[in-house]
């Protein structure tokens, strides 16, 4: 067993934490206030039924240890659902001191919050929810990862993961339009900051950078379907890191999208390829949009429906005879109810394909979600990634198909290292990339 106390996120600055606190009405506290941690946790324990059941019902049977990617990868019992519940009980039992504070920050932020454990637990305990609860309390005493806090700050001030200004976003979009013209020989229309029928939400961390062809897939599909859509430079991103840190920030980021949809007068908001973003969109944003008569959907629902109705023409031979292995994003499979449509689409755009996970509900997390894309967490995230990488090798994958921005960023950084270690040449691709290539225009 390896002790992972040395693998931890760098702390966000007090200046940044205080700025974030001011946006949600929280008074910053002493980062060494262990008593506040226990008091706040006890209040949530009494008020949050799911949290209380998680801590009261766990019988320590160990079923979670058989599926938790963090534990399987490291062998550290503290870095497991069982270890995290034991740590929570220590807080309840008033065993709170400097060491407990340090361990809480380390191990609750090593959790991927992928919820794989909840599917095998005989009691249905969701330890990811416990992790998010304690992270929120740690944040109240000014303990939060620099990387996560920085992304949240970007999302709340610019509306996008990267903090790109409007002119940069417009330039990227216009370059994509030019590339589509060159590659597909068609003219496409993309409104920017204009009223339209639909608002498109790409994922800025990938669709504007390492997954440009995913973005092209959105644009060409919507143009072929005749959907009048716009992209807002105020809210050009479905990413929502508030999910990982604090629900109040999650809602603040989500409301920016809702307000922009209302301002532009759209009737439909379309989510792009992003696992955790879709989880927030499906469970929070869509119900809020409906309060204003606006609907929400995922680009993959539109794509699957278009293929079934024959509204678009597809030539799967354009994606060659390579082997494409589909990897279910954990937030699609557990919390997003988006399983059948991606697999249906893959069957129509690729000749040779298989599935990394025969049981989608037990999909292996990429290892890059929940803040693990931080530079200082790279070595640990590579350990997590070996689980899906080795399974992909067993499937003889040329490409791993991932309709998720965090998965793409994770694979962009870990695949070169894993390929060198294993002497292989596996790469990744988005599902809408394959749609883009196979679409007959």
SS elements, strand count: 9
Low-pLDDT windows of residues? none
Q: Compute the number of helices.
A: 20
Helix proportion range: 40-55%
Return the average pLDDT rounded to an integer.
Answer: 95
Strand content: 5-15%
Q: Structural class, from secondary structure content?
A: alpha/beta
- Please compute the radius of gyration using only Cα atoms: 22 Å
Domains (count): 3
Question: Care to describe what's here?
Answer:
- The protein contains 20 helices and nine strands.
- By secondary structure, the protein is of the alpha/beta class.
- The chain has three domains: 14-144, Fumarate Reductase Iron-sulfur Protein, Chain B, domain 2; 151-307, Rossmann fold (3-Layer(aba) Sandwich), CATH 3.40.50; 312-438, Rossmann fold.
- It has a five-stranded parallel beta sheet with strand order 1-3-2-4-5. A four-stranded parallel beta sheet has the order 7-6-8-9, with helices on both faces.
- Helix 5 (81-92) packs antiparallel against helix 6 (98-108), helix 13 (247-263) packs across helix 14 and helix 17 runs parallel beside helix 20 (431-438).
- The chain starts with 13 loop residues before the first helix and ends with a helix.
- The model has no long low-confidence stretch (mean pLDDT 95).
